[in-house]
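re: ur question from yesterday

yeah so i grabbed the chain u mentioned. its 150 aa long if i counted rite. heres the sequnce exactly as i have it in my notes:
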Amino acid sequence: MTAPSSGPHVPVREIGDVTVGALMSKSVRTVRPESTIEELTELMTVYDYNGFPVVDADGILQGLVTRTDVFKLYLQPYRGPAPVAGAGATVAEIMSRGVIVLRPDERVFTAIALMVEHRVVTIPVVTPSAKGPYVVGIITRRDAAGALKP
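ran it thru and got these structure tokens back, copy pasting raw so excuse formatting
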């Protein structure tokens, strides 16, 4: 008797040796915490990115702001008595803090696992510095899919 099949057999490419640094985007568009929502939405119009690392003047990661964060802001008036950010609202008011990060030397397998487990599309890539995590790149689902190519 054979074990029941769990679906069609799909050959899986070995991705264990591919690093985040090999696939990450190195020219990262970032925003500052004091950037306005208007500036952010303009950047999102110009660059078709899902999210932007939020960094201080030294390039130290402060958080991540995504299209979903902007969508939530614009949905507030339709959801009831929650406070609505007014004109001049800043990225600091809507960004996520304590975000998932990766180092360039970590395996892309880890990036893919984190993206699936936490349902994130964009992960900042950082190196440690005396001031905090310095942003050196970003890896997206599209970047990570590069590891699956034969």
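noticed a couple things. Residues 70 and 94 are 7 Å apart (CA to CA). also The chain has a mean pLDDT of 86.
anyway ttyl
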